[in-house]
Amino acid sequence: MAMQSSIPSQYLLILVSLAADRDHSIKALCEGTTLTLDSLQHLGARVDEVDADRVIANTLKLIPEPALGLILGQHLNLGAHAIIGQAFLACSDLLEVLQLLDQYAPLLIGSRTQLSVYEDIARDRIGVTLELEGAAETMPFTYQAIFSGIQKTTSDLLDSKSLDWEIDLPFSKPKDIAPYLEIFGDKVRFSSDKARLSCPSHFIRTPLSTSNRTLRTVYENECARLLAHLADDATCTEQTLTILNKLEGQYPQLAQIAAMFNVSTRTYRRRLQEEGTTFQALLDQTRLELAQHQLVRSDISIATIAHALGFSDTSNFRRAFIQWSGISPSKWRKSHLEKARLKNG
Questions:
Q1: Cα–Cα distances in angstroms (integers) from residue 3 to residues 33, 216, 310, 315, 323, in the given order
Q2: Residue 239's pLDDT band (boundaries 50, 70, 90)?
Q3: Which helix (H) or strand (E) holds 116?
Q4: Do 244 and 183 share a structural domain?
Q5: Residues 6 or more apart from 294 whose CB is under 8 A from it?
Q6: Cα angle vertex 331, ends 326, 334, to 5°?
Q7: What single string gives the DSSP state of each residue in 267-288?
Q8: Is the pTM of this model over 0.85?
Q9: Residues pairing with 115 in the sheet
Q10: What is the CATH number of the domain that holds 337?
Q11: What is the CATH number of the domain that holds 135?
Q12: I want to staple 187 with a disulfide (CB 3.0 to 4.6 A). Which of 25, 92, 123, 166 is the partner?
């Protein structure tokens, strides 16, 4: 399933504003693209990453500031992230924020950029890794902007800048590292094999005062709908699976999914029927795949898995799993572990 690789226009608008403060015109920044100030200011507009790379490259030629990406990132307040910013505010802690960022990264940083949450248990730290594709000339800027933006967002949510950050960057050490030290502290490393940003687990797990579970569900439903719409050539089935896979344990009803697509339940059912499936079949498929993914890990109890899939008790989950796969979850786990032992032994 192909997905548009684009970023929100508001990020480029902030870059345009920074350039304007240095007496550079929007025309010079957008040279080589069809972008205009009007098109960037359109509510909900997105910019193809090829055009975004061109605007960034033009800006870096006009403004040869090695830390420009860091400056941009510090201007990315929660309002700049639109609906996802509202979802961040409603999260229970920063771990949920990072997980949302992981899930809906294509909405903010494009589908060419791979962002993943990781946990270093030995060092008791949690953070994100970042892998970029695109023009080499703009990569340092993009790493700077994304990591600086994450630092800004998480620090704003906790109302604290002192989160004991560690950052690894996959490019050479610049002459002046003062801007990095000001934002991230003194644990900044360059020429690393991977791009990483982390802080101690206790900061990541600190409860947020703005947490609101009901609002988070509302905002995340909208994020899932927007993500599905990025796949403009996807079938109704593919878009539905995209939404369900992003809403683990918070599965919407058929009517809610239809509303996300701005169609009636009757039209939604018909589209799926024309593609040879039903909403229930797709929901069962999604739940089975997630259950099997969790059952592979022997350290996760079946009761925990049942709860993660939205079941009120283990017996209901067991009956559903047998209906989906023909065997119980405990037998499936035992069979999988035996096959894994034979394969590795």
A1: 21, 25, 28, 39, 33
A2: confident
A3: strand 114-120
A4: no
A5: 300, 304, 305, 308
A6: 140
A7: HHHHHHHHTT--HHHHHHHHHH
A8: no
A9: 130
A10: 1.10.10.60
A11: 3.90.1520.10
A12: 166
